[in-house]
Specification:
By secondary structure, this protein is mainly alpha-helical. It contains 31 helices and no strands.
Amino acid sequence: MKSVITGIVLLLIVLWVHLTQGQSNSSFETVIGAVFSPDNSEAQNLIRYLLLPRSLIGVLAGIALGIAGTLLQTITRNPLASPTTLGVNSGAYFAVVAGAIFVPQQFAIAPGLFAFAGGLLAAGLVYVIATSVRVTPTRLVLAGVAVSLMLSAFTATLQLVYENETAGLFLWGAGSLVQTDWSGVRSALPQILAGSAIAILFIRLWDVLLLEDQTARSLGVKVQSARFFGVVVAVFLAAIVVSVVGAVGFVGLVAPHLVRLMGVRQHLFLLPGAAVWGAVLVISADVVAQQVATNVSELAAGSVTALIGAPFLIWLARRTSPSEGGAMNDSVGSLQSRSLPGSSLYLPYWGLMTIAIGLLLLALFSGVAFGQIRFSVLDVLQALEGNAFSQQVLFDLRLSRVLVAMLAGASLSVSGLLLQGVIRNPLAGPEIIGITSGAGLFALFVLILIPNAPVSLIPIAAMLGAFTTFAIVCVIAWRDGFDPGRLALVGIAISAFCAAGINLLVVSARLQVAQALVWLSGSTYARSWDELGQLVVFPVVLLPIAWLTARWLDLIALGDDLPKLLGVRLQQARLVLMSIAVMLAAASVATVGTLGFVGLLAPHATRLLVGNYHRQLIPLSALLGAILVVIADTIGRTILAPREIPSGLITAMIGTPYFLWLLWQNRDE
């Protein structure tokens, strides 16, 4: 009870600050007058129609997310579960965007129903992928993050293709409490109250679900039905929030743990406490958002909650023990033996290389020839002979961006290969452990805040960001010996933190939604020979060095003892290899933005072809990464021409299903 009372007192304080800050700068008398004796003064109208709905919708969102997170953690017995980490928010948001585009009339009648359906489907997909003999915390969260990334890629694609229909959804989708009337409150209030009441009515059921399944069955509980019922209630509450204010991340993760840290375990006090503290978190985040927005523009409260929730996820990942849902060491570590297999093919290596080179040349030609204006082989030959128009399109516009795509793909692929080998972690791609997000944050910082900065400063900033985030991840994960599961979770948290920082920069710079999405997704759009010159030096210099150090990777794969016996200075070797990996990823991000999943997908595909000998892996991995990004670039600018889909969205649509397949293949280990 103490946690509830403390939370209510703190909620009243932050609500007061929330109502009196910013544009209103209202006194106590003005706020009380607006509530109990309203008139038509400008100050009271501002409070009554803008600030009060905003405050109340924030409280409702916090209550719903706090209860939803508590239920999901109880049902899954997973301290890392929440609407954010299990993909519910992303599924609901995707359904909202799709509904607003394709069936706007039906969507306007019941937006919550669309969000509920999307959230439920996402949660079901996560559970099916992660289910195994023992569903561990890390496996469930990794499946949730992968589903979230896939759905986010589809959502971003819809927002780019239907820019007019989704105008205003970028800020809202990040979790904005902005209200212009009472319609949002009127819609959400009865639904959230109903969902919360149902959750509280079944308090005893949630307590029983914390027991072993056999014990719960002996008490007459149908465990599977009860869990399904609880998931439906949790998804319903989270979906209503998404349909009204967008995806407010991490509140459902943090709020229940804040109450548990106060010693509360029974749901009789845990659910009300999580509801109150969820409201405190949301309103406090919006207070901070409005303080930042006073001198720039509106900032979504969801960006602030991500800045809070990401460090909290790191803390949870480090303290989660085998007793809390399963051994984290087993959850992903078992992937290593099966995701780094020997070759199952009988083609000789040079045969594979010849095929890969041929495919790359074909992809390059397709990238140059296809687009809004298509060219035949004859047209290309005429361009070589001096046709001015063909030369301009083919060589001045397309060839440079295709070569940039090739080098970026090769760089990211080898970066992922090196990281996976050094850390002996199949999930250690530059995208998963936060390197690309950190590089993107620092590069965007320079682009926005120093608009006249020399071009050479951008890759320097990207490398600084990549090294910074990678150092943070390594320091945090070092205690656990770079355990695959914990390392991936820490990287995911760092990526979420950097994504919130990027969102803050985008909003403060007042970028157009399309500009922001293109940068955040990764794109080769309008990349010229200047960008090619900026990028080319890194793979040309670093890829041969990586090939020369491949023997170190072969030895590291055998453990720490053998390399030392053979005279390899293990720490220095790891430092050199990781530095190469980080520089390759940072150079790519500085040129094409935060291109995702190439560093995870291409190395795994390469190992499936040639096994684990790194002098063979590095060249073939570079070729496959180059092919992937060139094809993604070509598809992105031809499938909906004249509109373009960023290459990063295409690679995410390809990469996330592969990541999900990887988890599915190892579900019983």
